[in-house]
Amino acid sequence: MVDTVTLPAGTIAYTEQGAGRPVVFIHGLLVNANLWREVIPLVADAGFRCLAPTLPLGAHRKPMPEADLTPPGLAKLIADFLAALDLDDVTVVANDTGGALTQILMVNHPERIGRVVLTPCDAFEEFFPKPFDALTRLIRTPGAAWLLSRALQFPAVQRQPNSFGWLAKRGIPDEIMASYVRPCRDSGAIRRDLKRFLVGVDNRHTLAAADKLRGFTKPVLLVRAAEDKVFKASLFDRLAAILPDARLVEVADSWTFVSEDQPDRLARLVVEFAR
Question: Residue 141 sits in a domain of what CATH number?
C-alpha cells in the first residue's frame, strides 16, 4: 500500500505492508522505496509492520523545496517520519546513502529506534566513496543536474561504475530503473532537491556520527556484501569495533544492493534480528 504523510519538512510517500512491530527501510541516493520491494513482503509475512519512505534523494515525485536536505536535515526528516506515525521500538534497515543518514539518526535522534540493520553503506570518511565522490563537485557546475538527469536515461550510462553498474550484480529491472531515473528527468523541482542534497554531502557528517556511535548501545546488525565493489570491507570492521552491541555477517554472491541480489537472505536476517 502506498500512502503519504505530511511532516514539518513537507509531504513524503511511503509504502506499508503487514502488521506487528515496525520495521522501517531507508534507501539511498537516486533510488526510492522500490529498492526494498523483494524484501518487504517476506518480512511482513513473518509478522512485522514494514514501512519504506521515499526520501527526497532524486527519485521522489513530490518536491520538497522548503526541506532541510543536508544529511542532518534528512536524518531529522526520518525521525519526524517515525514520530508522525507514532512508531516506537523500530528496527531500521538501511542501505547505501541511507546508511549514512541512519548513522546520523542513531546519534542525533535515537529515541524511537530499537535496533538497526546496516547493509552496505557510507561511513567514516567514505561519504561518498569513489567513484561517486565526484558527484558532489560536478553537481555545482551550472546545468550539471539537468545533464545528469538526461544521461541517466540511457542503459549504457546506467551500466557504468559511477552510475548503477556496480550496485546490483544481476542488474535492476527496467521498470524499477525507470522509477529511479525518471523523476529527476521530468521535474526541475526534483532536480533542485537532488542538487541541494548533493552539495551538502560531506564526510564531516559521517565522521561526526562515528565519534558518537560508541554511545549507541542498542543492537546493530552489520550485513556486509562479500563481493561489494563500492564499499570497502574494512568500513564494517571499523563500525563493528566502535558499536557496543554489533554483530557482523557477510552475504555471499551480492554487490551493494543486497536487497536486489539476495532478498531472501536479507529478509531472513532482518526477521531473525528483529525478533
Answer: 3.40.50.1820
- How many residues does the structure list for the chain? 275
**0.85 exceeded by the pTM?**
yes
Cα distances (angstroms) measured from residue 85 to each of 7, 45, 47, 103, 137: 10, 21, 18, 21, 36
pLDDT per position as a tens digit, 116-133: 999 999 999 999 999 999
| Residues 141-172 pLDDT 10s | 999 999 999 999 999 999 999 999 999 999 99
**Domain hosting residue 227, numbered range:** 2-274
What are the Cα distances from residue 148, in Å, to 155, 158, 217?
13, 11, 40
Amino acid, single-letter form, for residue 234: S
| Number of folded domains that form the chain | 1
Within 10 angstroms of residue 189's Cβ, the number of other Cβ atoms is 14
